[in-house]
Amino acid sequence: MKITYPKLTELELKNKRVFIRVDFNVPLKQSGETYVVSDPRRIEEALPTIRYVIEQGGKVILGSHLGRPKGQPNPKYSLEPVGSYLSNALGKDVLLTEDCVGDAPRGLSHQMRVGDVMLLENLRFHPGEEENSPEFVARLAELCDVYVSDAFGTLHRAHASTEGLPRVIKHRAIGLLVEKELKFLSPLRENPKRPFVLMMGGSKVSDKIGILDFFLSRVDTVVIGGAMAYSFLNAKGFKVGKSLCEEKQVQLARKIIKGADARNVRLILPEDHVVSLAFGDTQNVSVTQGIDIPDDKLGLDIGPKTISKIGAALQNAETVFWNGPMGVFEEPVFAKGTFEVAKLVAQSKAVKLVGGGDSAAAIMQAGLESSFDFISTGGGATLEYLEGKSLPGLKVLEIVQKPQI
Ligand code: AMP
């Protein structure tokens, strides 16, 4: 059974009102009285699709969420800063609507001229978006003739704009960003070049258990860093002091350790740590000599021996997938592990892919972006896709070709 998706380049866009579901859920920072976009990567990645629709004579209507306003209008989550950034990037006016549905945006959608760009205010200001309510879908459907799915980072959500709307719009396709994400991520889940090194960090084992489970039969080496590592070390009988570690996570870690042993997968865990007396304590920082962490301390980054060990493991890798920081990288004294690992991966000759979020932010901060083959814009969506789950926003667009007998 072969699964494909309708492509943007196959659609007739001339004079059409084209709703593009984008992922403009970007970090903002305060600048004087207002907010500005602090990491525009997701906006930049959406530009090829927007420009393509403009070039083809379409009228662009952009829909996105930002943050978690919980179904209520809230100026803190307005897409206004995104509109300003986008207007500069495109070199044209971008009209931000006051509400994403209703008479005003519908009227405006009919007045738009070819090449105009309209940005709808935060879709999550209405509860119908996350509830995927048919009424809200119908109100969105009034705004467009064509639907384009380009919010890769939101495809794992069955929301009105990602799942309900493409169900009711006949002329629909995936956008250029979703096409690119699938081009890089699908070989990884189907047939990665070996040796394959999977590197996971961050805080929660529960979020990564699915991907670890799925890849155990496809990888050669698994590297575990970040807070996750303490659950694994605890499961192996080492002392983790006051480090983040819960019994439930330790049980999950045990399951992975057993699976790795059974399949001869090499599991690399930290051999030394950067520790401190409390979370947020940046004064009493030291490096442990060995794996055990004293009872009064907690691990907040991997140590130098661990960094070298990871470097050696990357030596002959043909594929590397990395997701999650190796320590509390937001704090400079605990950021070394993550940045050094970013450098080591960048230097490797392997095909290098990164699953969004914090690891992507670290790579940008280190200016290493160009050394990577692909940095996904999705966090949770990327992990769910890679662990073989079906994403609602993709499923709805599937074209299933049965093999000919
Ligand atoms: P996740 O969302 O699961 O990828 O986790 C990312 C978060 O994990 C980041 O905010 C890091 O600060 C945090 N983190 C990484 N290492 C540690 C650690 N050793 N202790 C506590 N938090 C950590």
How would you concisely characterize the structure shown here?
This protein has 405 residues and is of the alpha/beta class. The protein contains 15 helices and 19 strands. Helices cover 37% and strands 18% of the residues.
Word description of this protein:
With 405 residues, this protein is α/β, with parallel strands linked by helices. The chain contains 15 helices and 19 strands. The protein has helices at residues 41-55, 80-90, 103-111, 127-131, 134-141, 160-168, 176-190, 205-215, 228-235, 247-262, 304-314, 336-347, 357-365, 380-386, 392-395; strands spanning 2-4, 17-21, 28-31, 34-37, 59-63, 94-96, 117-119, 146-149, 171-174, 196-200, 221-224, 266-268, 273-276, 286-287, 298-302, 319-323, 351-354, 374-375, 399-401. A six-stranded parallel sheet has the order 6-7-5-2-8-9, with helices on both faces. Strands 12-11-10-16-17-18 form a six-stranded parallel sheet, sandwiched between helices. A hairpin with a 2-residue loop joins β3 and β4. α8 (205-215) runs parallel beside α14 (380-386) and α9 (228-235) crosses α10 (247-262). Bound molecules: adenosine monophosphate (AMP).
Topology:
Blueprint: E1 2-4, E2 17-21, E3 28-31, E4 34-37, H1 41-55, E5 59-63, H2 80-90, E6 94-96, H3 103-111, E7 117-119, H4 127-131, H5 134-141, E8 146-149, H6 160-168, E9 171-174, H7 176-190, E10 196-200, H8 205-215, E11 221-224, H9 228-235, H10 247-262, E12 266-268, E13 273-276, E14 286-287, E15 298-302, H11 304-314, E16 319-323, H12 336-347, E17 351-354, H13 357-365, E18 374-375, H14 380-386, H15 392-395, E19 399-401
Parallel strand pairs: 2-5, 2-8, 5-7, 6-7, 8-9, 10-11, 10-16, 11-12, 16-17, 17-18
Antiparallel strand pairs: 1-19, 3-4, 13-14, 13-15
Helix pairs in contact: 1-2, 5-6, 8-10, 8-14, 9-10, 11-12
Bound molecules: adenosine monophosphate (AMP).
Adenosine monophosphate (AMP) is lined by residues 202-204, 207, 226-227, 244, 299-300, 324-325, 327-328, 330, 357-358.
